[in-house]
Amino acid sequence: MKLFEKKLNSRTVFIGKILKLQVDEVELPDGKKSVRECVRHSGGAAVLLVNENKVLLVKQFRYLYGKAVYEIPAGKLNAREAPSVAAARELEEETGYRADLKPFLKLYPSPGYTDEVIHIFYAEKFSFVGQRLDDGEFLNCEFVPLDKAAAMVEGNEICDAKTVAAIYKFLSMKNSL
Fold first, then answer.
1. pLDDT tens across 116-153, in order?
2. Dihedral of the CA atoms 85, 52, 104, 65 (nearest 10)?
3. Long-range contact list for 147-155, CB < 8 A, 24+ apart?
4. What whole-number distance in Å separates Cα of residue 108 and Cα of residue 90?
5. Residue 19: phi, psi to the nearest 5?
6. What is the Cα–Cα distance from 78 to 138, expressed in whole angstroms?
7. Percentages (nearest 5) of helix, strand, coil residues in the chain
């Protein structure tokens, strides 16, 4: 069976600063019709920075969860912005670090309803140049030992998907060496 859905029509329901919501009618592989609610998002970029066996995390209040959440530094891509440029910008703004960035992981955070792609980079040859938070952005940065970060994932203290994926991939690569 060919796994493909053909878009028959689409209507935009909402356009905001971060996302656009569309409702699409599609034709399924068996010829039947269905509806897809689509959250369109420009994508994001994130950075895994590990220094002396410690991972750099930010802790930021996330309104929809009603609590502060641990994450690797990250942010939204601007229109037509290269993921590596966004990652470098966000790393410096949020943490004050500048680094050489190497592609590390590409993540689809929730493929059932959004087209968002998060591009995760690994930081090499980094230096501290000073944090420059955006207006209205409040967060704390800390280096967390990798074993503690892994325990925080296991204990559901770190639940952010990009952070969990980056930490686990790094640990699996480190353990295979």
1. 999 999 999 999 999 998 888 899 999 999 999 999 99
2. -80
3. 149/55, 149/57, 152/70
4. 19
5. -150, 165
6. 20
7. 25, 45, 30
What are the distances in angstroms from CA 163 to CA 73, 110, 170? 9, 14, 11
**Predicted pLDDT at 177:** 61
Helix residue spans in the chain (DSSP H): 83-95, 146-154, 161-175
The residue among 15, 62, 20 whose CA lies nearest residue 40 is 20
pLDDT score for 137? 87
Residues 6+ apart with CB under 8 A from 59: 68, 69, 70, 71, 139, 140, 141, 142
pLDDT, tens only, 21-43:
999 999 999 999 999 999 999 99
Q: Closest by alpha carbon to 75, among 63, 54, 58, 100?
A: 58
